Amino acid sequence: xxxxxxxxxLYRRHTQSSPAQRPASRRPASGRxxxxxxxxxxxxxxxxxxxxxxxxxxxxxxxx
Length: 64
Description:
Distance between the termini: 65 Å
Mean pLDDT: 80
Shape: rod-shaped
Structural class: alpha+beta
Radius of gyration: 23 Å
Low-confidence stretches: none
Number of helices: 1
Strand order of the largest sheet: 1-2
Strand content: 15-25%
Largest sheet: 2 strands, antiparallel
């Protein structure tokens, strides 16, 4: 039993992806953080660069 358990542990350890193989997180190419704002029309948070001002309100491109 101990040999089987060790074999399974080694197999799982070997097959798990290393940090170098994991996909990179979705960050802007510049490496800076993006400010997220809520669309006043639908309530969804979107990057500030993808919103438009409508008076005092911010709306996403979907509602332009």
